[in-house]
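Hi V.,

You were right to ask for the full record rather than a summary. Here it is.
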Amino acid sequence: METRIFFNPGDSVANIHDYNEAVRKGQIFKRERHNDDLVIAKGPNDKEYAIFYAKDALPAEHAKSKPYEVKHRL
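Predicted structure:
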């Protein structure tokens, strides 16, 4: 089961069409910043996978938040 999480779309580290490429890019970001957990997520109508820092998650009621489905955590 996927987990819903909320982010400001402007906070994404990258937007990538291919899931495997998103995971690879996420692993590179993770290697460079050892302390920051990453989330690869996809919005309900998005064609791209977005990479976010997990610490940037927002509450659902935040004005700039958009729901995403977590596809992978790094």
